[in-house]
């Protein structure tokens, strides 16, 4: 199980980031069957590396170095102690081609990409299927098998207009599409080993429904800024793993 906190552009200071990460580490350290990953903004990564938290970034560039003003490379993230990187989040508005290149670049230095895939409107499985194809098709099996995929419907993200979270049924039918796509793309053995998470308005009250739907964890936005709520989400995952 993976409990991944996407802090987005929060909090405002390194001091607050340190306190938040410290409190989350304290709340989640007992949940040993859950891989808890914190994805703070780039400037806070170095400040958090002294804590016992697993770090991820929220993006990376396609190249490892060079004349790319304002960008951060996978190699730099690795050097800062990152093990994961979220790629293709809908808030970034990237092309599928760019996401694929970033996935390759991340795996090349040993980062685990957490690739977001989701449709814009609810009840559009054809669009979701096409999104899966556009975003993941052609990524080499060896690369995809080192990745984590997130079903993150754009309409379910807490900060969007609808922002209401998906239902258990929404998630279980979407995950069927993900599983069959992955098995077709990389084969049954590799495909079934790729973790698929859910993201979009996850909180301590609804997490169990997503786990029941088959998600192997969650990408948590808003609720990851509260140590108590994030800890409670991780606790549900730990319990669910035990059942
Ligand atoms: P949310 O964000 O949990 O606040 O909906 C999830 C995300 O955008 O990764």
Gist?
By secondary structure, this protein is of the alpha/beta class. Helices cover 41% and strands 16% of the residues.
- Kindly report how far apart the N and C termini lie: 13 Å
The total beta strand count reads 8
Strands in their spatial order, largest beta sheet: 1-2-3-4-5-6-7-8
Average pLDDT: 96
3D structure, described in words:
It is built from ten helices and eight strands. Helix 1 packs parallel to helix 10. An eight-stranded parallel β-barrel has the order 1-2-3-4-5-6-7-8, surrounded by four helices. The protein is of the alpha/beta class and 243 residues long. The model has no long low-confidence stretch (mean pLDDT 96). The structure holds 2-phosphoglycolic acid. 2-phosphoglycolic acid (PGA) binds next to strand 8. Residues 6, 157-159, 199-202, 219-223 line the site of 2-phosphoglycolic acid.
